[in-house]
Amino acid sequence: MAIVDFPELKALLVGPEKIRGGRLMALDVGTKTIGIATSDVLRMLATPLTTLKRGKLASDLAALAELTAKYEVKALAIGLPLNMDGSEGPRCQSIRQFVANIARHGPPALAALPVVLQDERLSTAAVTRGMIDDYDMSRARRAERVDAAAAAWILESALARLK
User: If you placed Cys at 25, which of 73, 87, 118, 160 could pair as Cys (CB 3.0 to 4.6 Å)?
Assistant: First the structure.
């Protein structure tokens, strides 16, 4: 399915369509990793899930398809790294290409999922600051968890917009 906006996604999730209810999954797509978070079935909580190391596109999409099937995901929220002034830069183009690759080259179940793009400005910075301030995590430990935590931050923002 193509990129949808939040009102359209909300209508799909609460309407008479087949995808009513169910989990959402957020992706924080980077050049080396993909942070992944999932919601609960009621879409109240966002939980960091894992971080995938990027490889070839086919293996990345297969891993995402496996996770979306395992968690019965109904839609994806993918972080869009807008510039501070709200404009789109090269990283946004990369994310849009990744979404297009999901639709064109992903396994059918993954390609069929609706996708919303969620502004992720400062998500990694906010999560990192929280890890330092609240949990006093070491740099190595933060590096292991920051991408999945940033995906959870993206998902929390998306869930708030759906309410």
Answer: 73
Using alpha carbons, select from 57, 37, 56 the residue that is nearest to residue 47. 37
Half-sphere exposure (Cβ direction) of 135: Cα atoms closer than 13 Å: 12
Quote the tokens at residue 44: 């109240």
DSSP string covering 65-132, please?
HHHHHHTTEEEEEEEE---TTS---HHHHHHHHHHHHHHHHS-HHHHTS-EEEEE-TTHHHHHHHHHH
What would the pLDDT profile of 111-136 be if each residue is shown by its tens digit? 999 999 998 866 565 555 655 555 55
Residue 160 is inside which H or E element, if any? helix 139-162
CA 138 from centre of chain: 25
Please give the Cα distance from 61 to 46 (Å, whole number). Answer: 22
* Burial class of residue 126 (count of CB atoms within 10 Å of its CB; 0-12, 13-18, 19+): middle
Question: If you ran DSSP here, which 8-state letter would residue 16 be given?
Answer: S
Whether the predicted pLDDT of 139 surpasses 80: no
